[in-house]
Specification:
Blueprint lengths: L1 H19 L2 H10 L2 H9 L9 E5 L4 H8 L10 E2 L5 H6 L5 E5 L3 H6 L7 E4 L4 H24 L23 H32 L1 H6 L5 H31 L8 H25 L3 H17 L12 H7 L3 H14 L4 H33 L1
Parallel strand pairs: 1-2, 1-3
Antiparallel strand pairs: 3-4
Helix pairs in contact: 1-10, 3-8, 8-10, 8-11, 8-12, 8-14, 10-11, 11-14, 11-15, 14-15
């Protein structure tokens, strides 16, 4: 046993040295756990920001001028005044996300107690902005017209009072959500890339044949790559969590960081095994990239980190229970956001462990067959 552990340790050190001498992968790791997380946190905003809007003012009245001046940064860009016959062409060319048409006699009809119609055209290819911005525009118009008629801005009196309490993210800071979800994506992607690339690098450099003539078992070769590449990603995760998530994005960690890192280690146990499997099936790095697109991208998109897991079809929810990323997203959100302890997240820990064991067994079987064929 001691001899086997020594082989696994020495082979793992060899993998770390090989990775250190690969500048491309080293730069990829550095950027993935720093720059990419900052960009995802700060750029992936769900708020309306600098939406381009054009207005057709056919009324030329004090009320229409008031409406035009109500749209300003940062929600909207300064409105452009265009003619009625320019609406279709400007929308087709994608110049404006919204166009507002104020009809003739709008001011007169409002003062007369009529209900004149305003036309809002939204470019729905900008799905998020179109959905949020249309509601913004309606609220702005209603508020400005009511204030113009009443002389003061009057809030609508409701028969009930709604008290809203924001838990876990009271300031609704979007960077906190986007940064952590991107960290999860980088953990899954890099762990697969590093282990798969390590195996393909052995094959391309001819060192895999050297290992076959040595007194080493396939399990020793496989486990050495798993622990070495998993350790690299785990250390990068801990540093990114401290310096990027907490440091640059200013996100408070509600739960236990060691518990989160323990869950990360279990996640890496699964994804590095998957990387060995893909590295065994693929013969070149381009093939590994294509296989990753087929497996990793759906795992990331359907794990609950991009869209709510509960909003997906039941059959997708059932299938994604077999993906480690689904349980890891639940673990990360529960620990980092809500301060959950082991007594809450242990079912997901157990699920990731089981999935990891299945991946290891399957990967080891395929890896042994591959080595037997090569030998």
């Amino acid at each position: 046993m001691r001899h086997k552990l020594g082989n696994i340790y020495n082979l793992g050190i060899k993998e770390l040295r090989s990775l250190y001498r690969d500048p491309v992968l080293m730069i990829l790791i550095l950027l993935a756990f720093s720059f990419m997380i900052v960009v995802a946190g700060k750029a992936a905003s769900l708020k309306l920001n600098n939406a381009p809007i054009a207005i057709v003012d056919e009324d030329q009245s004090p009320l229409s001028s008031r409406l035009i001046s109500a749209f300003y940064p940062p929600s909207f860009k300064t409105p452009h005044l265009i003619n009625l016959d320019e609406i279709d062409s400007a929308t087709d060319e994608g110049k404006y996300t919204f166009t507002l048409n104020i009809p003739p006699h709008f001011h007169r009809d409002v003062l007369a107690g009529k209900q004149p119609a305003l036309q809002i055209n939204a470019d729905a290819t900008q799905m998020t902005q179109a959905f949020i911005g249309a509601n913004y525009i309606q609220q702005i118009i209603n508020a400005e017209v009511n204030e113009y008629l009443n002389g003061v801005r009057v809030e609508q009196n409701l028969p009930i009072k709604i008290a809203i309490r924001m838990r876990f993210n009271p300031t609704l800071t979007e960077e906190w959500f986007g940064g952590v979800m991107e960290l999860i994506n980088m953990i899954a992607m890099l762990s697969v890339i590093l282990t798969g690339a390590a195996l393909i690098r052995e094959r391309e450099h001819g060192t895999l044949e050297h290992l076959l003539v040595m007194p080493l078992t396939p399990s020793e070769i496989m486990i050495s790559k798993i622990w070495a590449m998993g350790l690299v990603v785990l250390v990068a995760t801990a540093l990114s969590l401290h310096f990027i998530i907490q440091g640059i994005l200013k996100m408070p960690i509600a739960g236990s960081v060691p518990l989160f890192l323990f869950g990360t280690a279990l996640m890496l146990f699964s994804t590095t095994s998957l990387g060995i499997f893909l590295g065994t099936v693929a013969r070149t790095m381009p093939q590994l990239g294509l296989l990753m697109m087929l497996l990793i991208m759906p795992m990331q998109l359907l794990s609950g980190g991009v869209t709510p897991y509960e909003s997906m079809p039941d059959i997708i929810q059932t299938i994604m229970q077999a993906a480690p990323t689904t349980h890891y997203v639940r673990i990360s959100q529960a620990i980092l956001y809500r301060g959950a302890g082991f007594d809450i997240v242990w079912p997901h820990f157990l699920a990731i462990t089981f999935i990891g064991l299945v991946f290891v067994v399957i990967s080891l079987i395929i890896f042994r067959r591959s080595l037997a064929t090569a030998h």
